[in-house]
UniProtKB/TrEMBL annotation:
<keyword id="KW-0472">Membrane</keyword>
<dbReference type="InterPro" id="IPR051599">
    <property type="entry name" value="Cell_Envelope_Assoc"/>
</dbReference>
<dbReference type="GO" id="GO:0005886">
    <property type="term" value="C:plasma membrane"/>
</dbReference>
<dbReference type="InterPro" id="IPR003848">
    <property type="entry name" value="DUF218"/>
</dbReference>
<feature type="transmembrane region" description="Helical">
    <location>
        <begin position="29"/>
        <end position="54"/>
    </location>
</feature>
<protein>
    <submittedName>
        <fullName>YdcF family protein</fullName>
    </submittedName>
</protein>
<dbReference type="InterPro" id="IPR014729">
    <property type="entry name" value="Rossmann-like_a/b/a_fold"/>
</dbReference>
<keyword id="KW-0812">Transmembrane</keyword>
<keyword id="KW-1133">Transmembrane helix</keyword>
<feature type="domain" description="DUF218">
    <location>
        <begin position="70"/>
        <end position="237"/>
    </location>
</feature>
<dbReference type="GO" id="GO:0000270">
    <property type="term" value="P:peptidoglycan metabolic process"/>
</dbReference>
<dbReference type="GO" id="GO:0043164">
    <property type="term" value="P:Gram-negative-bacterium-type cell wall biogenesis"/>
</dbReference>
<dbReference type="Pfam" id="PF02698">
    <property type="entry name" value="DUF218"/>
</dbReference>
Length: 249
């Protein structure tokens, strides 16, 4: 993953290697590249500002629609690696996805609740998010008959396509899409491209105050780098999908 922290670490490692080999210009180049990345993404709140921009691209409806066919909750609320180790669902920072999904399903008493999440891991794929979600939603017995689980998806495009195949949405139906606010631009784009007739966005799990501010009012290197990781991953995913769509891949 081309996260700024990873690039910074690789640059400094190459700089150190260059020093050992007495490749002075090579070493200087990567040393200053590493320093530049540290300042740009560790000192300056570039990551939080990028994340704030992503989080403000979609909003919740001011008033809930009168009726919806269903609610789609995207995976991202469970750490399946730890869940597999301990034997029960381990929730992460994205827990608001499933909490909001349950809240909306209780509000719309006739709507289907569709949880979409397999395993996006390259290794340790023994457990899917859908398995964790089944255990989590078992604490909502009133929803049991209306919940469906899609457990094959490994990325956002598959979330959209596999959920569509399972739900078979009809023209005129409205579905609420629940995912983290910073992830919503990519998710909404892919659900539209996958042929969902009408999606109502329900961003949740906000990480910023929504304001773009590049002034470093406080030194929060770890926080800035973490937010940069989230933002850069989303922006790269967005760009890759658009490029593939243009090339019809």
């Amino acid at each position: 993953m081309a996260a700024p922290a990873n690039l910074m670490g690789i640059s400094l490692m190459l700089a150190a290697s260059g020093r050992l080999l007495k490749w002075w210009r090579f070493s200087d180049l990567f040393f200053w590249l590493g320093v530049g990345l540290f300042v740009a993404f560790g000192v300056v709140p570039t990551g939080p500002s990028l994340l704030a921009w992503l989080e403000t691209q979609h909003s919740r409806p001011r008033e809930l629609p009168g009726d919806v066919a269903g609610i789609i909750v995207l995976g991202g609320a469970f750490d399946t690696y730890l869940s597999n180790i301990y034997g029960w669902p381990i929730l992460n920072d994205g827990v608001e996805r499933v909490l909001d999904g349950a809240m909306l399903a209780r509000y719309y008493k006739d709507a289907t609740l569709l949880f979409s999440g397999g395993s996006g891991r390259l290794v340790h794929r023994e457990r899917t998010e859908a398995e964790d979600a089944q255990v989590f939603f078992s604490s909502y017995p009133d929803l049991k008959e209306r919940i469906r689980y899609e457990n094959r998806s490994r990325n956002t495009w598959q979330n959209a396509a596999f959920s569509r195949d399972m739900a078979q949405p009809r023209a005129g139906e409205r579905w609420i899409l629940v995912t983290s606010a910073y992830h919503m631009p990519r998710a909404a784009m892919m659900f539209k491209a996958a042929g969902w007739p009408e999606i109502i966005t329900w961003p949740t799990d906000y990480r910023t105050n929504g304001k773009i501010d590049l002034m470093p009012h406080k030194l929060d290197v770890l926080g800035n780098l973490y937010h940069s990781h989230l933002a850069v991953r989303e922006l790269i995913g967005h760009a890759v999908y658009k490029a593939r769509a243009k090339m019809n891949i």
